């Protein structure tokens, strides 16, 4: 069964701009303006994307002490780890299935 956090992760990342934002933030924290410029998105559109990513808890933001208007966005590790764990389970299942198939074929080939 798929965890709600994994469901939300894929739902939010169905949008290509949000996938690009997550990819960019995977390299390190960035400001909204930097994300907008890197994705070729307007500031209002980026604001909407970041609001969705924040609500889904895929990213966090922090205010810069010297400038309350400036926010730095960071990728949260926990949702990514949850998705990786889910993918690892899927991969383990397929490895098991492929191993069983290989054993079956090898048994049939042996006289």
UniProtKB/TrEMBL annotation:
The record's annotation in SMART domains points to: HTH_ARSR
Indicate whether Iron appears among the record's keywords.
no
An example of a GO molecular function for this protein is: DNA-binding transcription factor activity
Q: Which domain of life is it from?
A: Bacteria
Q: Which InterPro entries match?
A: ArsR-like_HTH, HTH_ArsR_DNA-bd_dom, HTH_MetalResp_TranReg, WH-like_DNA-bd_sf, WH_DNA-bd_sf
Q: Where is the HTH arsR-type domain?
A: 1-98
Q: Which Pfam families match?
A: HTH_5
Q: Which UniProt keywords apply?
A: DNA-binding, Transcription, Transcription regulation
Q: What is this protein called?
A: Transcriptional regulator, ArsR family
Which lineage ranks, top first, belong to the organism behind this chain? Bacteria, Bacillati, Actinomycetota, Actinomycetes, Propionibacteriales
